[in-house]
Amino acid sequence: MSRSGKYSQELRERAVRIVFDHVHEYPSQCATTKSVGGRKLGCTLQAPRRWVRQPERDAGKRRA
Questions:
Q1: What pLDDT, in 10s, does the model give residues 3-24?
Q2: Which of 54, 52, 58, 56 is nearest to 17 (CA)?
Q3: What's the pLDDT tens digit per position in 34-63?
Q4: pTM to 2 decimals?
Q5: 9-58: which CATH architecture?
Q6: For every residue of 22-41, which 3-state class applies, written as one string?
Q7: Torsions phi, psi for 18 (to 5 deg)
Q8: Distance (Å) of CA 58 to CA 39, 48, 61, 64
């Protein structure tokens, strides 16, 4: 059973795409997620960070 949470799956996927597409425009991935989540999508600052890290873990680019 998946947890529905506060944000839709579509919003989560969109945030991840935006972060990966624009990370080169910011000094760090953290700055990118803050900009995308807090300013552009209206999410909390930590939510996009978690959403981005999961695909990185799945791809073996980040440890749990």
A1: 557 889 998 888 889 888 998 9
A2: 52
A3: 888 777 888 888 888 888 888 778 888 777
A4: 0.74
A5: Orthogonal Bundle (1.10)
A6: HHHHCCCHHHHHHHHHHHHH
A7: -65, -45
A8: 27, 16, 8, 9
